[in-house]
Amino acid sequence: MSKSSRPSGVCRPAKVRRQPRQDRSRAMVDAIVEATWKVLAEEGYSAASTNRIAERAGTSVGSLYQYFPNKDAIVAAVQRRHHADLSAVMATAFAEAAGQPLAVATRLLIRASLDSHLLDPDLHRTLSETVPASVNPETRTTLLNGIHAQIRGWLMSHEAEVTVTDFDTAAFIILNMVEACCHAAILGQGPTVDPQKVEDELTAAVVGYLTR
């Protein structure tokens, strides 16, 4: 497809401009990403200009642009790191849940979901609520698809204990129900609620759904 015939309005994922190859360059990229992480968590997406990020990183805007074409490319790098942290929490929980009775395993997974929202609540809120979805849609899709697959595999391992037979749909319902409740409990701006009670009630709800 020629440049002139490329469809307009197609969002391209923000990418790093130049891959760091030396220790000094890697340190600079890490400093820029870490500074962006802090600005997003403390000041919000709208405040995360390249000038502000460079200031927090202790470098010049010119140096920043050697590695990132714009602020959204840096935000995308922050998203990838944050989602990797979330994935690690959930992977550990699924490993711990393996071989456990259904109710025990369910509680472990729900507790991990709550814990993942506590890794950096301010950053999590900014990334999920104010950063445009077009900045880096693939990262969140990959995260959710991965967790969906893990839930589906976990359900299959408890096939003898559950009454649901459509594991794809069941995994979708559990993923979105638990994610929505945990997000609201930890990051929501509405009524406050005890996370332990959320864990208890979600555990009962999920087990009840799976064994109804």
Task: Please describe what this structure looks like.
The structure is a single chain. With 212 residues, this protein is an all-alpha fold. It contains nine helices and no strands. It has two domains: 14-71, Homeodomain-like (Arc Repressor Mutant, subunit A), CATH 1.10.10; 79-211, Tetracycline Repressor, domain 2 (Orthogonal Bundle). It has helices at 23-43, 50-57, 61-65, 71-97, 102-117, 121-129, 137-157, 167-187, 195-211. α1 crosses α4 (71-97). The longest helix is centred in the middle third of the chain and has 27 residues, at 71-97.
Observed structural traits:
Tetracycline Repressor, domain 2; 68% helix; 9 helices; single chain; Arc Repressor Mutant, subunit A
Brief characterization of the structure:
With 212 residues, the protein is mostly helical.
Provide the fold topology.
Blueprint lengths: L22 H21 L6 H8 L3 H5 L5 H27 L4 H16 L3 H9 L7 H21 L9 H21 L7 H17 L1
Helix pairs in contact: 1-2, 1-4, 1-6, 4-5, 4-7, 5-8, 5-9, 7-8, 8-9
Distance between the termini: 53 Å
Radius of gyration: 20 Å
Tell me the name of the CATH homologous superfamily of the largest domain.
Answer: Tetracycline Repressor, domain 2
Order of helices and strands: HHHHHHHHH
Unreliable residue runs: 1-13
Report the count of strand segments: 0
Task: Give the assembly state of these chains.
Answer: single chain
Mean pLDDT: 89
Count of the domains: 2
Biggest pleated sheet: none
Relative strand content = under 5%
